Amino acid sequence: MGVPRQLDGREFGFTLFKERMMVRHRKFDSEDALTAFLAANGPSDVYASAAYYLNPELEMDKKGWLGADLVFDVDADHVETPCKKLHDRWKCSDCGHVDSGTAPRACSECGSQRLEQYKEICEQCLQAAKSETRKLVDIMIGDFGFTDREMEVHFTGNRGYHTLIVSDRVRSLDQLARKEIVDYVCATGLRPELHNLTHGDKLRWELDRSASFGWSRRIARALDHFMSTADQSELSQIGLSKATIREIMEKRGNLATHPEKIDWRFVPRIGEKTWERIAQRAARLESSQVDTVVTTDIHRLVRLAGSLHGKTALKVQILSIDELEDFDPRSDSIVFQEGEVTLHVEQVERFRLGKRDYGPFRDETVVLPDATAMYLLCQGRAHIGD
Amino acid sequence: MLHSKTDLAKYPFSTEAGEYVKQLSIRIDDFERPEFQNVLSRAEGRVKESILNGVVSPEFRDADVELLSYPLGQVLVAIAGEAYLKRRHALAEAKRSHELLKAEEPEKVIRLATDTFRWRIGEPDRDAGSPIHMLKLSFVDYLRTAPQFHDPKWKLVNRVVSDGFVYISIDEAARLLSEEVRIQILRRLETQRELLVPDILAKRANELLALFKQQRGPFEEYGPPPAAMEEAYPPCIKSLMQSLADGKDIPHMGRFSLTAFLVNAGLSSEDLLKLYGATADFDERMTRYQIEHIAGKKGSRTRYKPPNCDTMKTHGLCPYIDDICKRIRHPLSYYRRKTRMLQKSSRGGRQNSSY
């Protein structure tokens, strides 16, 4: 199990299967004590604080906050993906109209704003969560200078990844500082003009990749990528004239011979506003869609690495940066390897767990491997017996 | 290294200056003696400058006098005991430090930052860096002071950040250092205990306090206006109210901010329940529980305030900025301003279109 450093300074929390309420303000002096408690009580979920306290077992204002690890959460549910159009649905509570994708502001039929959202997480969503995490890790390493040893990535056991920075350096960062960091990661408040990307001559220097850093480099790179690969329609979408577009297309030929120094100054009629628009678009692509609340909460409880997720029975898996790339969340986090269970399954669409597909099921009794059975049971989509 | 006494006098907040003063072994009643009258005068002068100009002058002739007047000035402010004066004086001294630091050689600035404030700061590798930036500062140290400033240029996202370092100019380093000075002074002033002071100091301190009060004018009244005025809500709150009225799902942070704002604006728990009653997922018991927690009636009994504007922006809750928004940093400040405006104009006062 991945017990956090300085165990006795952390607050622990548990959700129990029956009660569904969280039990907080627990403290353990050793890993053995923790294990014994878990074995005796079998909670559905286990959490440990990112923060270190003098007295974790006391109430919030008496705990004595000593510092906290830096935590980021990427949740597939909150990441924008094109596939949401395919598997998410919304329904209007007033007129009953149903449509696919994320719910708009108002029903397209009757204009009501009372809409219900139905969501699912597919493989693409999980992949998107992984790439957002990858971007975050790159920023942590390249911009903030953290090493592999100072970072931990955990698969949450359901639909996302936590990234923890456990370095001593970040411990005493206050809430304002953490807010600044999350703004950095999300590119919130980014002003392209302050990165000298939109003022004539300076544009050249910033685009010299070896000399620029941080967001300057990132935007420059994305800007570069855009100018080199955008097709006719994308270029005219940002308001360029046909003549300008033709010039760009011609000059692109030079890419092969001058891969290092791309000089976009030759493009005349792209004004400041347009560069800004492109820069903002680039920033959005390069930023990581992390949950802003999690990082700024200095009292946050984080899922304990090595524990199981109460909704899936999958493991909160610790990953090294290298392992992240090939990690298969619906397969590599399975804990129950043997045995089978007979159970009654409700309406479930086809899904994958491990190397196999299961379902679709329509109110039927089936025999399933332990892991799959646990998965469905935890989600309340199946039950044992009649 | 700070070699000369002039340097110590210029940067009296430095560890070296502090040690030098300590080893002079001066006691507080020594300042009654005639040979210290210059120091007392200058100390008074420093505080007067804070009150009248908002900044302590950087020029001086006698380094010893200048150096000793720095802590003595703070003693006078501590005796006066007025919170707002403490803040003003700390800021005035900080501004003086900024003036002097920004004209200083990089090596000295680095030394001061490293020795006194334990910053990780240095000159970047020549081949990698840009010609504009002259120093690199560890992001942890940067974030200790920079977030206090509101100009977007200070935001980390608008800086050159690489390998854990933020690239800054000498002037910017000076600015951040002066902020450290301000915090250092304020911390000292706020933890000052009761001193047995010689009469002469007490007398001077009282005179300064009188000057300060005279300068400040009538005391401004704060507190929530008599009843909640929806017209006066800031754009963020209005937007949340609209979402609520439309039956839309509001994320947790939005809900919290809205509740905390309305509680501070004077709405009762019952009013809030009525408001939340319209939403599709309304669970009265849960909502009542949440409202009472935020209002401070349950749980930790802290009455929560809504987040400030920056935090609202981070969580995507700031829809747009209007003229009043530009002048404030907190939704409640917006509310106070606007209600005052509306009250003035409703009483038939002069239309103040500059708002």
Summarize the structure.
The complex is a heterodimer of chains A (386) and B (355). Chain A is of the alpha+beta class. Chain A has helices spanning 31-41, 84-87, 123-142, 175-186, 202-207, 214-229, 232-237, 242-251, 272-286, 292-296, 321-326, 370-378, and strands spanning 12-15, 22-26, 45-49, 51-53, 65-68, 70-75, 89-92, 98-100, 115-118, 151-155, 160-165, 301-303, 318-319, 340-348, 351-353, 356-358, 361-369, 382-383.
Describe this structure in words.
Chain A has helices at 31-41, 84-87, 123-142, 175-186, 202-207, 214-229, 232-237, 242-251, 272-286, 292-296, 321-326, 370-378, and strands spanning 12-15, 22-26, 45-49, 51-53, 65-68, 70-75, 89-92, 98-100, 115-118, 151-155, 160-165, 301-303, 318-319, 340-348, 351-353, 356-358, 361-369, 382-383. Chain A is α+β, with helices and mostly antiparallel strands. Chain A folds into 4 domains: 7-76 and 124-187 and 290-326, Alpha-Beta Complex (DNA primase, PRIM domain); 84-118; 192-286, no CATH class; 340-383. In chain A, strands 2-1-3-12 form a 4-stranded antiparallel sheet, with no helix packed on it. Chain A has a 4-stranded antiparallel sheet with strand order 6-11-10-13. Chain A has a 3-stranded antiparallel sheet with strand order 8-7-9. In chain A, α6 packs across α9. Chain A is globular and about 75 Å long. Mean pLDDT of chain A is 85; it is low at 198-211. With 355 residues, chain B is mainly alpha-helical. Chain B has 3 domains: 5-100 and 182-216, no CATH class; 103-180, no CATH class; 230-346, no CATH class. Chain B is built from 15 helices and 4 strands. Chain B has helices at 5-10, 15-23, 37-53, 63-80, 83-101, 106-117, 139-145, 170-190, 199-216, 235-245, 252-264, 269-276, 284-295, 309-314, 331-346, and strands at 121-122, 135-138, 161-162, 165-168. A 4-stranded antiparallel sheet of chain B has the order 1-2-4-3. In chain B, a hairpin with a 2-residue loop joins β3 (161-162) and β4. The N and C termini of chain B lie far apart (51 Å). In chain B, 36% of the residues are buried. The chains are: A alpha+beta (386), B mainly alpha (355). The interface between A and B is large, with 46 and 40 residues.
